[in-house]
Specification:
- The chain is of the alpha+beta class.
- The protein is 21% helix and 40% strand.
- The chain is built from nine helices and 21 strands.
- The strands form three sheets. It has a seven-stranded antiparallel β-sheet with strand order 4-3-2-1-5-6-7. Strands 12-11-10-13-20-19 form a six-stranded mixed β-sheet, covered by helices on one side.
- The longest helix has 19 residues.
- The N and C termini lie far apart (63 Å).
Amino acid sequence: MKTDEIVKLLKESGAFAWRITDTRTRGWEFYFIRHNLDQNRSKDLENIQITVFILSEDGKSVGSATAEMGPDESEEYVRLTIKDLIFQAGLVGDAYYELKGPEGDLIAEAGDIDINRISSDFIDTMKNIPEDEVTFMNSYEIFVSSVKRRIVTSTGIDVTEEYPVSLLETVVNAKNKEHEIEFYKLYDSGTCVKKDISEDLGKTFSYGRMRLNAGKTPSLGKCDVVFSSEDAVRLYEFFKDGLDVSYVYMKYSPFEKGKPIAEDIKGDRVTLKALRELPGSSLNRMTDQEGSLIYDEVLMSENVPLAFCGGTKFSYYLGEKNTFIPGNYEVSGGTHTSEELLKGPVLECIFFSDFQVDSLSGDIFGEIRLALLHEADGTVRPVTGGSISGNIRDLLKDMKMSMERTRYDSALIPSLTRLANVTVTGAE
């Protein structure tokens, strides 16, 4: 059934509120072994998600339930699905909240996305990556899509937009007579940003050579650590998560508006801004997944929260208006040059086998796959093995950030982030 036909059935259902998200994805997929095309295929998929909200008899609680279906289901099937959703939603008893209504003119839809051109850009980029006998592309996969999404709600939201979403998965090999290693890199983006991909893969090739000759990480105890790769995004997601209304409402986050998140700061302070558009991002949207308008807003300034973000339910509970679920964000650059941040002694972590930042506790942990140990005398040597650990709540007090910034899909963050007194457990 078409969306408008489902709307009619929902209006007749007696539901307190409802939301429909109709998403159509058209795209190409390419699978390369070395640079030889192994297979490719096209896709044209449509998915319809229906969420039904039910008000309790006393009017004090709201329940919701969600189902997904294809566009070819019969009217009878959709009627039964809505009936089942109403039953399921009646079993849920969240405190009362309301869906948002429309904000401004959100009806205009974007033009067509040229997935053929974007695909060609990716293929040309990969074919021109310089390789040699030591470092080379093992394989790569390219996924390019044009996504057309329509969100319709019982409160009057009806917005359609179309946007590109791309994914490049790569496996880089490095080998010598004794060893052969692989580095897996994934690049999410909207369109193909040739310069960013070429530069990053060039660095990955050089890191592969370093990894072949890396020694074991020594036990350094407490020392400074620099994050110079995409893993640093997880550090900044700690701040972004702490500004989410759901974390604040459930007391997972101690952040308060107008109050610094830490005292006795010796290093740089974080300014975090939500963005509707970030060139190259896969998350450039006019609205979030609930239909709320996304706009540019400073959420935290110099370590002081100014605004919270997030979904409708918890925003209603906190009395927050004009909130949205952010996709893109940027963190302002720090006050240090790259040379200052890499001055030894410091361990520069480049690749982890696993890296985690717990957004609730602030604990960080990473298993080192490749790092560079910068000594006080200026010497640099590659190391592998061992781990790092600490807690971002404590470490942010002496966090230093580079003035230069790097974009990793939807996040624009300082290129280098230096934390002091991180625990480094060696592999020796």
